[in-house]
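Chapter review: from sequence to fold.
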Amino acid sequence: MNTKILLRTLKITLVISLLLIVVKHGCLLSQDNSEDQAFIWKVETGNNKVYLLGSIHLLKKENYPLHEKIENAFSDAEKIVFEANFDSAQSPKVQQLLFRKAKYSNGKTLKSTIGDSIFQLTSQKTGALGINLEQLNGFKPWFVSISIVAVKLQRLGFEPKFGIDLHFFTKAKAENKQILGLETFEDQFNLFDSFPDEIQIEFLLQTLAELDTFEKEFNLILKAWSNGDILRLEKYLLSTFLDYPGLYEKLLVKRNKKWMISIKEFLKDEINYLIIVGSAHLTGEDGLIKLLQKKGYNVEQL
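The token string follows.
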């Protein structure tokens, strides 16, 4: 697996929350929804409506059509907001920035950072996926972790082009809806590059530990998502972070608080918004749903 192929995959996977990718992985959506709820919420003010949709970032063609409540929210919104704007994903500047952040430039290597034993374990796991770890020895652990997950998911038949994010990005472009980002690619690359070595190694070890249970555990996540079951999804997504508080703080808590600044401005506008972020960003006491409720907004699940 060469780095050019990895980059093509990571241009998509890096822009998404990475949380769903970091946590669990892979299978089909269940359409069994006895309460007819979807994983989408609405905040309605005297000015407008703002919808918040939790995303599943890689899916299969057969996962469509989506719940009509989700599609209706898209139709009702004039502006579509993603974690970052996919329009810039193809630019050479972004690609160069990714490699500048992801590669070592000080003589260090993956092996010298993670040590021989973890390197051998990683090589064994990645070899089963057709990845030659020696080709990634110049890259940092966070990049290697995401690369492993991206390849694993695609081997299971999941593709970014069928993810919720790209589904609605494509529709928004076709319908000339305005597209916004809560952060930039540079923000996301800087986030991962800011992790100290010990957190990056935790990230890698967490990914390796869960490779063998991707399909089984992702089945549970997808069923909870399709049923709009936020409490069950919260259990699946956030429990993983109990042993990784540094990752939780950086990947979820700080970003959610930063995004709330923009979301509160959206709620003052006179047009409707659909905000699409990784599902984990909506869950838990630090999630966007709770943060909005604490600010006094009435948040209604559809």
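Two observations follow directly from the output. The CA atoms of residues 80 and 172 lie 7 Å apart. The chain has 14 helices and six strands.
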